[in-house]
User: Fold this.
Amino acid sequence: MSLNEVGSMIAMQGFSGLSLFTVLLLMALGLAIIFGQMGVINMAHGEFMAIGAYVVYLFSQLTQNYAPGLREVYFVPAVVAAFFVAGAVGYVVEMLLIRRLYKRPLDTLLATWGLSLAMQQFFRSFINPKEVSAELPEWLLGAFNPTPSIQVPRNGIFVMGLTILVSAGVYLLMLKSRWGIRIRATTQNRVMSSAVGINTDRVDRFTFALGCGIAGLAGAAFTTIGSTGPTSGSLYIVDTFLVVVFGGAANLIGTIASAFSIAQAQSLLEFFLTSAMAKVLTLMTIIVILMIRPQGLFTNKLRT
Amino acid sequence: MSHLTKKLGKADLLGVVVLSAVILVLFPSVFGIFRLNLIGKYLTYAFVGVSLVLLWGNGGILSLGQGVFFGLGGYCMAMFLKLEASDPIATKIQTTPGIPDFMDWNQIVKLPLFWLPFKSLTFTIIAILVVPALFAFLIGVAMFKRRVGGVYFAIITQAVALILSVLIVGQQGLTGGINGITDLKTMHGWDIRSDSAKYILYYVNGALLIGCVVFTRWVLSTKFGMLLLALREKEDRVRFSGYDVANFKTLAFCMSAVMCAIGGAMFTLQVGFMSPSFVGITPSIEMVIYTAVGGRMSVVGAVFGTLLVNFAKTFFSEEYPDLWLFLMGATFIAVVLLFPDGLAGLYDRYGKPFVLRRAARAHSKPKATEPNVAVATALESGGKHG
Assistant:
């Protein structure tokens, strides 16, 4: 094996780690808002991702059947629609269910697990019991070759770009906008926030919807990587929660750092071990670190 | 008022008596062996249900990893039975006779070291009780000493369930992988698949379950039980009163783990196999809903809740498979929003006053006012003692 080949292998291995990082981060961002900021355990988070994926699938089916000429462009509006559909469903769920349970976190967990079961069956009964995949536009297929021996898949680059965009957006929104101030104020001290004139119910509802919308975006992005089935969402829910908890629940930078370290560890271990053992080892390491440092990697310096 | 409290005690004891009658007399006389074996399987889940009443309903500690302990108990028993089923004569067509078939398929030529002690039944029974307790102790000490609780504990126990199920599936040669450990035949030469064995196992299982129910009720009536309740309500205040909170929580966690493991071992004996599908996240959460439906505060309620949910599951997944998950989802939501005390709550609200009124009328006809007092006391205590 020449030095050049080793170099390209390291580069590709690095890229696969980065790719997993963006996937984890995109999944975790929505939850970082819902769980990290609001403290709501949404076990149906994975199903909101599935909603996003199914919206893209729906758009792809529609273009295929009614407007084949639009194949190259349908994807962008589909991703936007995925955000809004998942967000709208989240809005309704908050209104009907979550709102009543803010003071009972463990019960929220059970109720949203029930919701996720019902949503899975909904996908199975009304969309397709099997896995489906969207017809991707040309510009997302194939790979990009900077040198003959290095191949970087284009869908990976797309997911990465989207993740950077969404993370930057969430960061600015939470830490720099007035809306973000209201969200943080509400989560830190609900009574005081409403006393100074913040409509906390409205803040809760929109924040939850925003988190679900981002989950939808994540789901939409994942259609470029793999197919979507009724139970796809539930496969990732524990990893997603661990990313958020490991990072330090109320800290966005922590979420990014934790997604990065988990992804790099896992893809590195996958190089030496089977993927199942790599996953076991990564999860075990996270749990051991969490036992030593229960507050996660990063904490916000404030009194709550 | 003392005779009233006695009556209340009687009404609570009534639950255990009714439960024993239903399990040991009613079911065996109504159902044939096939259905009875199925009920026996449900009753093994009820061990988990009861364990969660102790841990979650009264202690406020929600573990989403009870499947881990159920699985550990079940796997210990399955390993013993599998070794007995794979004697060199029965497995002579294998490349390496005398080892379990799945090991042979995975090109393993020697029995792994951790399987060896499971040749002894005594060791197996001890392992069923000790392994889960040790594991729970480790997790409990690590988490509770660091004051990890509530939601974080739930998420981390869930992750443990995920890890163990991925590990079992991944190590196919050592654990039987996704299929689990199957083809279990005899226990010390006693064919566990015969009808008579199934009857005996059903009764053993029922008796053990009632034992766990009585034990849990006793634990909850002791000072330790009161402490658990206090922990659920105001952990800090208990800590400031000078109690080492982590030790009590760990003890409760270990107790619940052992109960789950007994259930798991009985599951393996009655159903004849053990697989990772009883270890992972989904079964662990499903078992929580049994308790929630039965009433998270009520030991007896948890058993009835388990039976009810499983009857419904069997009925709907046979008749209307599409509806089942909707119904299950709706049950989760309804139990949380509308009936947080589950079946036991409904009974306390509507059934118990009726029973008490009857009892009071029978005992003290002249005094017309007393039944109302009894009802009032029952309603008051309804939410607290199930």
In short: The first helix of chain A runs from residue 3 to 37. The interface with chain B takes residues 39, 41, 97, 100-101, 104-111, 113-122, 124-125, 234, 238, 241-242, 245, 274, 276-277, 279-280, 283-284, 286-287, 290-292, 294 of chain A (CB under 8 Å). Chain A is about 70% helix and 0% strand. The beta strands of chain A are 143-144, 152-153.
